[in-house]
Amino acid sequence: MNGGRKDVSRVLIVEDDTALSNGILFALKDDERVFKQAFDFASAQAAIKSESFDLIILDINLPGGSGLELLRQLRTESAVPIIILTANDLETDIISGFELGADDYITKPFSLMVLRARVGVQLRKGGARQSPDDFRCDEFTFAFEKMEFHKARKPVELSKTEQKLLRLLVENRGRTLQRSELVDRIWTDGSEYVDENALSVTVKRLRDKLEDKHSEPKYIKTVYGIGYSWAVV
Questions:
Q1: 3-state class percentages of the chain: helix first, strand second, coil last, to nearest 5
Q2: 30: burial class by Cβ within 10 Å (0-12, 13-18, 19+)?
């Protein structure tokens, strides 16, 4: 996703408090990161449309709009890691943030050292979210463009639906994808209604082909009440 050197991470800070935004930048700054600051909803939207980022730190209460709406928009087209940083500390707020696709949720006031550590975690995970045309992990090799899939060097036959599901999980590994999002993105033939049981069946078939049937799933994880994720192992 980097626009320049591949070893430089681009971070967008969306925070309307100028002093706090500058403090965050100062705390996180090092030779391997470059930063852009946005102080309202419109400027954040403009930055995201014009540039690629490896991480977004996002306040919820922004002049001109809600950070949650920005998060919702981003998750329709991007798996960039997003850390919500906000004074909204109710349990319902936190759940809403995660359900919309946030990777982490930090409430104010907060420790800059803790923020720095969590940013490091998300940047390391983020490197795993790039489009996996050729993906290798442990005993797996997936060549999505060629539609060739191997486990322990043995070919695995996947249906088109299973391929779509696998690609979405791998592209977003480490992040939980909601069941509704998976249904919308896998069954794109214009059908007005798809039984969510179809997703459960597809997940089971994919697991049967990739996972050890005698153990708990190691890669395709169920996040109960929310959806599924490909675990970062």
A1: 40, 25, 40
A2: exposed
Q: Domains in the chain, start-ordered, CATH in brackets? A: 9-129 (3.40.50.2300), 134-230 (1.10.10.10)
Q: Taking the model in full, what pTM does it have?
A: 0.55
The pLDDT tens digits of the residues spanning 134-178 come to: 788 888 989 888 899 999 889 999 999 999 999 999 888 778 888
Residue 195's φ and ψ, nearest 5 degrees, are -65, 125
Provide CB contacts within 8 A for 156, sequence distance 6+.
149, 150, 209, 210
Q: Exposed, middle or buried by CB within 10 Å (0-12, 13-18, 19+), for 163? A: middle
Most confident of 78-87, 99-108, 199-208, 220-229: 199-208
